[in-house]
Amino acid sequence: MGDIRQSLLPRDVLSAAKELLYHLDIYICNMVQSGRQPPQVDSKTLDLIEEFILHTPKDRNAPVRRMSALQELQLLEIMCSCFQEQSRDTVRQLMFSALFNLQGNQADESRMALLSKLVSMAVAVGRVPILECAATWLQRTHRVYCVRLAQVLVDDYCSMVPGSGPTLHNIHSASPRFCCQFITAVTTLYDLTSDELTPPMELLQMIVSWIQDDPRLVLITFLNSPLSGSQPISSLDVTPLGGLIRWCIKAPLAYRRDKKQTNNGSSDGEPDAARLFSALHLSVLQVFMLLPNILNEKGLFGRLALLQMESVAALASDLSRLLDQADKHTHAATSDTHAASQLALDRLAQALQVAMASGALLCSREDLRAICSRLPHNNLLQLVLSGPVMYYNNIHTPPLTYSPHAAHSPIPTLPPHAPHTPLAAHPAPHAQYPAQPFMTGMPFPFRPGH
């Protein structure tokens, strides 16, 4: 395609970009049809994209071309139509990669800016092909850039434009793959270490609603996408389970920090947050309960960990720090602080128990004790740390050298919902926080008494 540059130079910026997209589509279609393996866009074509679409030419002497806001909007509409009209997914994915795969050069900032606007528009107008391509991009890209894209969408639909939340909510039905990757990205972004990194209430409500409607949603990337051995270690986790657990466990303490007290002594917005995080915690535990059948069918139970020990260790460290801060700086009553602390520890214990029993977390009892050694006493956590961790059916099979980014065979389908054993409510330490369920149906060698 390098020979079309001279024909693009005399054109205005919008016309040149439109013409290049047209030729790019033809070029990739011919490449796919020829059967070239692996299909790869050449460097000259990437240079044209940077010059005429991203407006960052490699030649410093070349004139800098800029689009007006109206022209940029028109380009986004043209790109939406281009992806919508292309019927072959392989061609769409290759075109999206050519446009937006990061190259480690000065054009990457322009790539991210254009990508963020395109995906935001695709959410607004329901362009599923672009959302599907963006889901693949989120799987393959460094997490730093993934959370930047997620931040733009949260700003656009949960902060800047009041009442636009329902538009973002629709991605659940439009593109479950993108929705799963979006949840993973926002749980990476919002780690509850500060008020700025605490998820907005509207986003939290949205995610709780999605997972309650379809618990399998958070497993879509893991189940339906073949993971290549070359997947970068810096990419997002394969599922958002680790991030969601972090939210639920840290929430009782993080949502109390720096909140204004109302006349009745509770924090503004805290009851709603408590209810939502309680519902989210139950939903995440139910997702873990789907895993044994899936892993057993593939012969991976006890060999493949979806929840990494490094993540659990980091969570325990964060929780220890939050508990210390709550003891030293809280202005609330001592009983309230103790209740919030015990609720966080209860949730940690429940998550560890169910994750181990479901085969999502592979570790020894000694490892867990070491990780949780700095945490204060909690009855439920003590039971989990004291009892036998798990006896795997294939205990004599060596564990896979697996991380969320390592290679494994894709699991094409998810089995139908298994009937859930009724859950017995574990008594909450304080009435302000809803009771947390203890998973009675899990094959665990002990159960705390009530």
UniProtKB/TrEMBL annotation:
Protein name listed in UniProt: Integrator complex subunit 15
Domain of life (superkingdom): Eukaryota
Organism of derivation: Poecilia reticulata
InterPro entries linked: INTS15
Pfam families to which the protein is assigned, alphabetical: INTS15
